[in-house]
Amino acid sequence: MKPIAILVVEDHQIVREGLINLLKMEKDFEVVGEARNGRKGLAMAQQLNPDVVLMDIAMPILNGLETTRQMIKAMPHARVIILSAHCDDAYVSNASDSGAVGFLLKQSSSVEVCQAIRSVNKGKTHFTPSVSKRIQRLQQQRGHLGTIQKSASLTSREMEVLQLIAEGKANKETADELGISIKTVEKHRTNLMQKLDLHETASLVRYAIEAGIIESSVQLTVVK
């Protein structure tokens, strides 16, 4: 039987290597690629067409949530399992909305990781029990999460610009990274502030942390 082709997208090398070593121990798994950021992971997924993608949330350049959205838009058959050290409401809801079919905490056992991969490969979903409970509660209380509602109104490009702003990138650096003009970056920045009703860079950074776009532990240089 053909092994399950897996792509691992994780920016921390020690975690990525640990996952790969774990997966290689399973006879029905084949790790076909690895990437250290979302943009590289997106390109590799389109090139390698894996059966399952293990996707970290908090990554530089392009976070796992936006990578998942873009990946599923380009490859509707993609089966993505989100990996996170956190299960805050915003993380869980945004992961579900991104199209991911699984969500595992990094504290999960190796048995659960393997079980999740086999499950989603068969067309099922797999959410860690604590995450599953949060999703059910959030679906019942959808109206109260302003942060999540606002995220849904942002385009993929605006989410990319927001992450780079929150990481402390200046307009020129953002333009170079995305291959667009500084004027276009400024326009996206203005649209972000209008849509989110936030009117200073520090507020955008706080919003990005609350929405799970970046981790609060990231050392940021806020550029005004």
Describe this structure in words.
It is built from eleven helices and six strands. The chain is of the alpha/beta class. It folds into two domains: 4-140, Rossmann fold (3-Layer(aba) Sandwich), CATH 3.40.50; 153-210, Winged helix-like DNA-binding domain superfamily/Winged helix DNA-binding domain (Arc Repressor Mutant, subunit A, Orthogonal Bundle), CATH 1.10.10. It has a six-stranded parallel beta sheet with strand order 2-1-3-4-5-6, sandwiched between helices. α5 links the parallel β5 (102-105) and β6 (126-127). The chain is globular, with a radius of gyration of 17 Å. It starts with a strand and ends in a 14-residue tail after the last helix.
Summarize the structure.
The chain is α/β, with parallel strands linked by helices. It has eleven helices and six strands.
- What does the radius of gyration come to? 17 Å
Series of H and E elements: EHEHEHEHEHEHHHHHH
- Total helix count? 11
Low-confidence stretches: 144-148, 218-224
CATH architectural type of the largest domain: 3-Layer(aba) Sandwich
Question: Would you identify the CATH H-level superfamily of the largest domain?
Answer: Response regulator
* Tertiary shape: globular
Taking the sheet with the most strands, its summary is: 6 strands, parallel
